[in-house]
Amino acid sequence: MLRERWREPGFGLPAALVAVLAACGSADAGVRDTDVSANGGQAAETGTGAVSQPVELVPLRVGGIEIQVEIADDADERQRGLMYRESLEENQGMLFVYPEQRTLGFWMKNTLIPLDIAYIDRAGRIVDIQQMEPQTTETHDSAAPAMYALEMNQGWFEANGIRVGDLIEF
Fold first, then answer.
1. pTM above the 0.90 mark?
2. H/E/C letters for each residue in the chain?
3. What is the pLDDT of residues 20-78, one digit of tens each?
4. What is the pLDDT of residues 86-101, one digit of tens each?
5. CATH of the domain at 146
6. Do residues 120 and 149 lie in contact, with contact meaning Cβ atoms separated by under 8 Å?
7. Host domain of residue 48
């Protein structure tokens, strides 16, 4: 099934991004529970010994800074998230895509690296940014309804002057 949910009103996605997303499958879900690893597009062994599929990175702009993100827009991808990863490149992250705008909640169970999360509404505006500590089960709920969540290395948003109200360019 195509990832048509990206074609929400207010988003003008580049054709290349639509093509990358259309090449993959889709579903729905919510809470993380398993693992995956990324290695710059290479297949890699995960924390449980299974070999993951190569990841595809998609460019986004946040506050004028280009970043590369993995897209997590189905149940399995959103559950795995960044669990068991030992590192994340400086300008890389993961964008979680949900089928509708709502209050989102994330935790850091089995996540080894400290992360920041930006919750983003359907219009691409950041509505909340929170710091998350590794290996915790505290739930980090969005302060406002969101359709997307962007995880980056902890401190990345502050170091780059990214604030609530800024727009993400898809």
1. no
2. CCCHHHHCCCCCCCHHHHHHHHCCCCCCCCCCCCCCCCECCECCECCCCCECCCCCCEEEEECCEEEEEEEECCHHHHHHCCCCCCCCCCCEEEEEEEEEEECCEECCCCCCCCEEEEEECCCCEEEEEEEECCCCCCCEECCCCEEEEEEEECCHHHHCCCCCCCEEEC
3. 344 333 333 333 332 333 333 433 444 554 445 677 999 999 999 999 999 999 999 99
4. 999 999 999 999 999 9
5. 2.60.120.1140
6. yes
7. 4-169
Tokens standing for residue 117 = 């999360």
Single-letter residue type at 63: G
| AA identity, residue 26 | S
CA–CA distance from 137 to each of 85, 143, 154 (Å)?
Answer: 17, 18, 17
Smallest CA-to-CA distance from 55 within 66, 46, 64 is with: 46
CB atoms near residue 148 (< 10 Å): 25
Number of independent structural domains in the chain: 1
